[in-house]
Amino acid sequence: MEIPIKNKRLAGWIREVAELCTPEDIYVCNGSRQEYERLMRMMVDSRMAIPLKKRPNSFLFRSDPSDVARVEDRTYISTPSREDAGPTNNWIEPDRLKKTMLTLYRGCMKGRTMYVIPFSMGPIGSPMSKIGVEISDSPYVVVNMHIMTRVGNRVIEALGEDGDFVPCLHSIGAPLSEGQKDSLWPCAPMEKKYISHFPEENLIWSYGSGYGGNALLGKKCMGLRIASAMARREGWMAEHMLILRLISPEGRRYHIAAAFPSACGKTNLAMIQPSIPGWRAECIGDDIAWMRIGDDGRLYAINPESGFFGVAPGTSYETNSVAMETLRENVIFTNCALTDDGDVWWEGMTDDVPSHAIDWRGNDWTPESPGDAAHPNARFTAPVSQCPIISSDWDNPDGVPIDIFIFGGRRSTVVPLVYEAFNWDHGVFMGATASSETTAANIGAIGNLRYDPFAMKPFCGYNMADYFKHWLDMGDRLRDKAPRIFYVNWFRKDGDGRFLWPGFRENSRVLKWMCERIDGKVDAVKTPIGLLPRMEDLDLKGLDIPPEDMRELLSVDISQWKAEIPNIEHHFKTFGARLPDRLWRQLEEFKGRLGG
Ligand code: GTP
Ligand code: SPV
Ligand code: MN
Fold it and tell me: What is the mean pLDDT of residues 451-479?
């Protein structure tokens, strides 16, 4: 078979995979619009894709009910030594894992087309960008990769004869025997799913799932797990962060990067329309930031993706009008509900709930039905370029200089609306002890409080203690040019389970305070956990919020924080001697501030 590829390693790898997986044929993607349209037509014909009458060039997919989110329990960091993967990752020794997976891969693409998807994370040619090649037997993956990454011939050209790339092997794990009728969303059962990473060889092997981060391998697998390991070796950072530019009424620009766990508000903050008069924001990225120190000593960030793979439920013209505008056309929807007039719908999208729809499983649904119309992890895939507030610098190969880091999570109690770190080490301590209630972005229990350091628990491709050390090292290199660090919690609730803070656009009030802090315009209240706003410094003009709610949002309950100490100690102890002393020292100082 003729493979039009000059890169020797790539040509050899394609041949090897074809021999292993025995597909019916091989197709090398060129990234063109015609290619996208042809694959979509093919999936419409097979009824896997449903064209939406109400949205031009937009399609709805329904996944298998077992294949609706990332599978952290089946995700592996396979380093020769278990310690190098660390206590936060699942680990299997590389030879053994490869042996198991090779058995699964043997003949796994029978009856299917093997797609070769050359893609670039980051603008092609940027010194910060990395090339990957995903081989997949899922046409759904191909069309999503078209939107989420830069796919095609330009990447093959950039690779040349001996350029480097990350091989990303993906199979849905559902070979078709002669004459067998295909299902609408083929995939393998849970115990055969493996999302495997071999960081020491920059290699990804994914088997058995067709959904999101399990299958679109540029995103979490390469963009975070493999990239974080590369970044540590090479002295840069790969983070689960949105990037935005905030512009004050005077025209001063602030660049903010924020790390919140999955389904905890990154896309929404990335697309914020400030509610405070005169302030504007531009979106740069909503999920991943790759950052390096520039010639001027500051930290520069790029968004390596070119699309949004965003949570649909909760997205509305009230909460996120920018996302709603982004979704007008050319969108792939997965696991949303289908309305009778041929549009998508999800919980929270409109005030009036449709009286009838087809739910995400393909069944009739009415407001009286017991379950949700859309799956809680239903998603949209949309091109970044369609975002009405996208920054002209979103694909600047040099990136944007970061002024502010924000960490956070979903905490219904204890954690206040916002506080600032005393210094870099304290900020790293805040990131390392970030905790959040689990969400539908992963298959597993929802609402369980867990430590999710830097929102990277599911995404760090090496020992998390070494990752903390890397953050400390970056601070040492950045010194007075380091971004200032803040912590936020938009999700605090009252006794009745109601959110105390209005969130969304109103979060701009908190961002404004951060900007005034870095400009030295406002003082802060020193508390044991960090620096909190004085009530009068938070711009609450036009916001109808009871003063007692504000007091609660800005309160620090010493006894509640003391109760967190044994949990933090336990969390730190899981890392053993690898945990940097500087973090133990931070914990000691924290205990001291809390009064023993
Ligand atoms: P991933 O794509 O999984 O990484 O998620 P994300 O961090 O981008 O989260 P996203 O912005 O999609 O928000 C997830 C859910 O939280 C959605 O249902 C939002 O409507 C909701 N949400 C986002 N921001 C806020 C907020 O400020 N307050 C409240 N109450 N909910 C929010
Ligand atoms: C996340 O879970 O953080 C996501 C969605 O951004 S996925 O691509 O499935 O990982
Ligand atoms: Mn994410």
Answer: 98
**Residues bordering ligand 3, an ion, CB closer than 5 Å:** 262, 287
Identify whether residues 168 and 212 lie together within a single domain. Answer: yes
Strands of 400-401's sheet, edge to edge?
A: 237-239, 289-293, 299-302, 400-401
* 515 & 580 share domain: yes
584 C-alpha vs ligand 3 centroid, how far in Å?
Answer: 29
For ligand 2, atom 4, the nearest C-alpha belongs to 262
| Catalytic residue status for 264 | yes
Write the residue with the smallest CA distance to atom 32 of ligand 1.
265
> H helices then E strands: how many in the chain?
16, 31
Give the closest ligand to the alpha carbon of residue 69.
2
Cα within 13 Å of Cα(363), Cβ side: 10
Domain for residue 126, yes or no? yes
Q: What is the pLDDT of residues 310-358, one digit of tens each?
A: 999 999 999 999 999 999 999 999 999 999 999 999 999 999 999 999 9
Q: What is the per-residue pLDDT for 125?
A: 83
Q: Is 503 in the pocket of ligand 1 (CB under 6 A)?
A: yes
pLDDT digit string, tens, across residues 173-197: 999 999 999 999 999 999 999 999 9
> Which range of residues forms the domain containing residue 142?
8-30+62-234
Quick check: 109 and 23 in contact, CB under 8 A? yes
Q: What is the CATH number of the domain that holds 89?
A: 3.40.449.10
Tell how far the Cα of 267 is from the centroid of ligand 1, in angstroms: 7
Q: Is the pLDDT at 486 greater than 60, yes or no?
A: yes
In this structure, what are the phi and psi dihedrals at residue 183, rounded to the nearest 5 degrees?
Answer: -85, 170
Query: 285: closest CA among 299, 306, 264, 300?
Result: 306
Strand partners, 379: 311, 334
- Indicate which atom in ligand 2 lies nearest the CA of residue 70: 9
Residue nearest to atom 5 of ligand 1 (CA): 263
Question: Considering 21, 264, 336, 460, which one is annotated as catalytic?
Answer: 264
362 CA → ligand 2 middle, Å: 23
Indicate whether 504 pLDDT > 60. Answer: yes
CA of 36 to the centre of ligand 1 (A): 29
How many angstroms separate the first and last alpha carbons of the chain? 72
| C-alpha to C-alpha distance for 233 and 526, rounded to whole angstroms | 37
Given a cut of 90, is residue 27 above it in pLDDT? yes
Quote the pLDDT of residue 1.
43
Number of other CB atoms surrounding residue 459 within 10 Å = 28
CA distance 282 to 273: 9
pLDDT, position 3? 54
Same domain, 335 and 189: no
The answer to whether residue 55 sits within a structural domain is no
* Residue 436 CB less than 6 A away from ligand 1: no
